[in-house]
Amino acid sequence: MKRILMIGTGGTIASTQTEYGLAPGLTPADILSYIPAVRQVCEVDTIQVCNLDSTNVTPEHWRLLARSVEENYEAYDGFVICHGTDTLAYTAAALSYMIRNSAKPIVITGAQKPIQMDVTDARTNLLDSFIYAADHESQNVNIVFDGKVIAGTRAKKERAKSYDAFSSINFPYLAVIQEGMIVRYIKEPPCAAPVGFSYDMKDSVYVLKLIPGMHASILPYLFEHYDCIVIESFGVGGIPNTLVQEFYREMKEWEGKGKYVVMTTQVANEGSNMTVYEVGKRVKQDFKLLEAYDMTLEAVITKMMWLMGKGRAAYERMKEDFYTEINHDILFTKRLEREG
Length: 340
Ligand SMILES: NC(=O)C[C@H](N)C(=O)O
Prior knowledge:
This is asparaginase. Its EC number is 3.5.1.1. This protein has helices at 28-32, 59-71, 88-98, 122-133, 218-225, 241-254, 278-286, 297-309, 315-322, 332-339, and strands at 3-10, 15-18, 21-24, 43-52, 78-82, 99-100, 106-109, 141-145, 148-151, 155-157, 166-168, 175-178, 181-184, 196-197, 205-209, 228-233, 260-265, 290-291. The chain is of the alpha/beta class. Helix 7 links the parallel strand 17 (260-265) and strand 18 (290-291). Helix 2 (59-71) crosses helix 3 (88-98) and helix 3 packs parallel to helix 8 (297-309). The longest helix is centred in the last third of the chain and has 14 residues, at 241-254. The protein is globular. It starts with a strand and ends with a helix. 45% of the residues are buried.
């Protein structure tokens, strides 16, 4: 029987009612006691790294999680992490970069309703996660939620209350789990390189969500105080006239000084393409900036934290690394390469 390590971090799945509202209170062993059927699937040990609403999860907790997986890597065949849903997509993307080439699956799950409730998604999500983690074809970092398996870099929380909280953005579900059976849609080649762990995440990242008529006065502050500015633009990507002059000034002033700008979009599906409209094409031609293409915002942010954590790199080097696919995070650059 496969041996799986369950790692508790808190979230709704672990929550109980308090006088101030739901708060995590159950241990991973408490949570596990609600799915006795797991005994037919695998052997489970439990550890707890924190007990937080995932609103309070930070890069420090990603490090604790990666460290727990590394320390126990030899002793177990797979890992199931229980996590709050609010920032689960960030943690899954972060761990996709911090833990590379893992032939052993690292499954992240959670729930919209506490496991103690009579009507809850928690038990199904958790049991499905163990089923997936114990399967010999599973590998790398994935989310198992509401019967779907999502690559760790492709998830977005799109629903605040429903059980189908997460969607796989610009990429198919890897698999579905129906009545305990895994149906795989994507066959992944076995990991070619040995597993690798890295811990340095530079969190100097700011996300600037554009609104119509936005004032440019924020830009100098952002360029001065952050090493990476992710611009959540409209549609396929562009800089509005109200910002463009100041943007040009800042980009010129900070060029070659280890600042990175990534253009992404507020639109959840189908990604950016700055070459379509004048408002994007000019900026892309005039400046060294990165483009998210089909990546999720969560993947963009955590990939930049991870790449910047490796040390300061010239733009060309950063560009090459940013556009290198990891755990299915970016496909569009492959298409561009094919098309020349
Ligand atoms: N469904 C949940 O888990 C939401 C909770 N606030 C959390 O992210 O920890």
